[in-house]
Amino acid sequence: MAANDSIFLGANEAPGQQSVQRCDACGHDLPELDASPACPRCGGLLAIIHRAPVDSMGAPSTPAALQHAFAQHCCARPSGHASGVWRFEQVVMPTAGHAVTSHPEGNTPLMARPRVSAWAGCDGLLLKHEGYNPTGSFKDRGMTVGTTQAVRTKATAVACASTGNTSASLASYAAQAGIPGLVFVPAGKVALGKMAQTLAYGATTLLVRGDFDECLRLVQRASKELGIYLLNSINPWRVEGQKTIVLEILQQLGWDVPEFIVLPAGNLGNTAAFGKALREAHALGLIARMPRIVSVQAAGAAPFAKAFREGFATRYSVQAETIATAIRIGDPASWDRAVRTIRDTDGIVLSVTDDEIIDAKVQIDAAGVGCEPASAASVAGVKQLVRNGVIKSGDRVVAVLTGHVLKDPGMLVELHQQRDDFALANRPVEIEASVQAVADVIARRAATTERA
Ligand code: F0G
Question: Of 186, 210, 273, 276, which has the maximum CB count within 10 A?
Fold first, then answer.
């Protein structure tokens, strides 16, 4: 069997089935309700291949009809698909019907913020803020689909390894579905907000003495041996949900393709999902050309950026270290899929230092937008590409902010209250309860601003 480079099912393939799970490596097909975490023949990653949508007469849906259908679902009643994921159900999970575990999620804003644009040097910059999802990160888009599949396959428990956001999302959706959740996180390396959410939503939380990469290896072994449904981003249904970040961006832009879509990259699940979304949208005639995907890694966790510079001749893994704990990943799981995304979109992979991430985050925060450290890597990446002349003035660029500012309050308290070397620190001032004390603070602030 050939490797899986299909976009949609061919007319004679998989008769009677709307979607199959196909092995990336050997092309072996599994029915859509099979719960295997990987190809049972060769261990390769599974991907969902749908039948292309058709109209009521069985003819291929036109781009206009699909765009109309996607818009119809937008903001539907609570009993309908009031979700920025499920209104794309025809290309996400066409057979789900209304039996979905949905918060709802998605429908996140695309923002223009002059302060951030000016700092990055890119007038055409828009921020797609995935921190507006119910648990505060883009993970909810994949988790609603993955959890729906867990229910459909009658899973008795669900599990993931996580740097924190996937675990918060899994905990929430598993609680809604009434399925026990089990999460594996690196001990001492998860941001406070994410840990708090995971505990609050009731997942069994295992603090593994090791890094994320070890957690992932452990959960893969444990889920196989203990028969637990795996909900990491190598789960093909998670990828289907995460595709909707791109579909929603395109819809918000009236299907007018931007020049660049820039995102932070760790385990490379999102980079993989973005490429799949774009290949399908292109094949369906929804878009006339591909935007260039830019994946941005933290310099201390950048095996994919290193490989990109060498034409992807080698697959690297590194011992990861970065302040952006969400992307503190040294051996990304969706490597080959992400390579395909970069190749298919004439994409770029780069790395930014922790200082560049902090600088970008401070600007995003001070604009009143806010995001977690890893998310700011995308805007830091835009600034670097403007500096290098790759992004030109007039280019339309969408930077994805993947998580909410409250995900990592510990880092913010340290930055603003405890670090002496941080010039932009916004220190709180303790005062006596008197109007005079308030006036003194205002006067001191005014004097400082004038001097600056
Ligand atoms: N941004 C945030 C806020 C994340 O939480 C993650 C990944 C990424 C970017 C990178 O996305 O892995 O698809 O390349 N977080 C995972 C987790 C690993 O466990 O929450 P990716």
Answer: 273
